[in-house]
């Protein structure tokens, strides 16, 4: 298999995992929202598909009360549950790596104790035409500003570049996140 074929296959595997996981949750009547890099990619694609950045894993927001239903739905879809380093993940098969997994984040809880705000509620999401539930743009921006790692800053820059986030009309944010968004705008030429 050529390098280009392998690159294409890697992207396709993430897409297949996304569709299989969201279908399993829909069939189990579990409320969820796709978050992280896949949510950024979905939003960016609404404006400019050439600006979409590929991501290697899948992050999904769920209610903690639905955790057992999530485990059962994912097991039926072929995922293997693991809990490692405080992260709930579902490997894409018994021999898969952590990057070939679905990572869970719990709604209305802090992902890390030092984060300034909690994750959003799953109701802060929208059903995209493809049938997947994706975190709303404002909630996604809050999540990216909350974790604020380099990858999150890159995702914020991607959304700014295509006009989803506007300096003149930013989302309503609490003070620590407002300061971080201002920092992104101030450093976009350096970081981008």
Description of the molecule:
- The protein is of the alpha+beta class.
- The chain contains 6 helices and 7 strands.
- A 5-stranded mixed sheet has the order 1-2-5-4-3. Strands 6-7 form a two-stranded antiparallel ribbon.
- α2 runs parallel beside α5.
- The longest helix is centred in the N-terminal third of the chain and has 25 residues.
- The termini are far apart.
pLDDT average, as an integer?
95
CATH class descriptor of the domain at 3-136:
Alpha Beta
| Class of secondary structure makeup | alpha+beta
Report strand %. 15-25%
The 3D shape can be described as: globular
> What's the arrangement of strands in the largest beta sheet?
1-2-5-4-3
Give a quick summary of the entry:
This protein has 192 residues and is an alpha+beta fold.
Jot down its keywords.
two-stranded antiparallel sheet, 192 residues, five-stranded mixed sheet, Beta Polymerase, domain 2, 7 strands, alpha+beta, 16% strand
Secondary-structure map:
Blueprint: H1 3-27, E1 32-35, H2 36-45, E2 58-62, H3 67-76, E3 80-84, E4 87-91, E5 101-106, E6 125-127, E7 133-135, H4 137-147, H5 150-161, H6 175-191
Parallel strand pairs: 2-5
Antiparallel strand pairs: 1-2, 3-4, 4-5, 6-7
Helix pairs in contact: 1-3, 2-4, 2-5, 4-5, 5-6
